[in-house]
Amino acid sequence: MQKNNKVILFQGDSITDGNRDRGTDLNHVLGHSYAYMIAGKLGHTCAEQNPLFINRGVSGDRVSDLYARWNEDAISLKPDVLSILIGVNDAWRITSEEPSGVTDRFERAYRHLLTETKEVLPQSKLVLCEPFILKTGATVAKWEQWTDLISAYQSIVRELAREFDAVHVPLQDAFDAAAGRREEAYWLWDGVHPTAAGHHLIAERWLEVVSDSGLLQQLGLN
User: How far is Cα 204 from Cα 38, in angstroms, rounded to an integer?
Assistant: First the structure.
């Protein structure tokens, strides 16, 4: 087997998970989310560089859940690129008034996670994707609370990206624009989880922003 030159790790919740296989089935090991689409595009165009794509998204996770499994699912993998998309479940626990959402730990847990990552993996490049929602399905009943929370999380992600020298991938504006073309549920079927079209939107924006940042060229993946 040819040695993989670069490791690209995707982390997050169900949006990243994409119902991925937990074994070694190469038909499904990357799941069926934006991560799979990005891996398909870069894996094709950069075949000579033989990059390795890993998906460790877990459905239902909040930022604090990421940290609980960070050694196994991030640090030990020593990724060259670590892409994170998280936040919707932090908001969901709060809007649902669940006991796990009594305090909002999004910012403190996220900063703690990134601080440790930078200490242990100083060479790994970070890509922070902002969480997003649209007004349909699960978000309608408490839309104002949802928008307040997600807007705050988007600001936090933007600031953390600046603080930790990460590539920041904005997504809300892309979904807002897409909702002008077709109804919200066409992109996020329940206001939170993307359809195939929604995942493709994320993948295209990720590739655009990360490419424009020079990160892919720096790693020889262009």
Answer: 8
The confidence score (pLDDT) of residue 3 equals: 60
- As beta bridge partners, residue 11 has 84
- How far is it, in rounded angstroms, from Cα 2 to Cα 101? 46
Q: In what order do the strands lie in the sheet with 167-169?
A: 52-55, 7-12, 81-85, 125-129, 167-169
Phi, then psi, of 70 in degrees rounded to 5:
-65, -40
According to DSSP H, which parts of the chain are helical?
A: 14-17, 34-45, 63-68, 70-73, 88-95, 106-120, 143-163, 172-178, 184-187, 196-212, 215-218
Per-residue pLDDT, averaged over 90-105, amounts to 92
Sequence-separated (6 or more) residues with CB below 8 Å from residue 92 = 101, 138, 192
Q: Say what the pLDDT of residue 1 is.
A: 41
Partnered with residue 10 across adjacent β-strands are: 55, 83
**Buried/exposed code over 7-19 (b: 16+ C-beta within 10 A; e: otherwise):** bbbbbbbbbbbbe
- For the entire predicted model, the pTM comes to 0.96
**Mean pLDDT for the stretch of residues 150-171:** 98
Short-list 207, 179, 175, CA closest to 88: 175
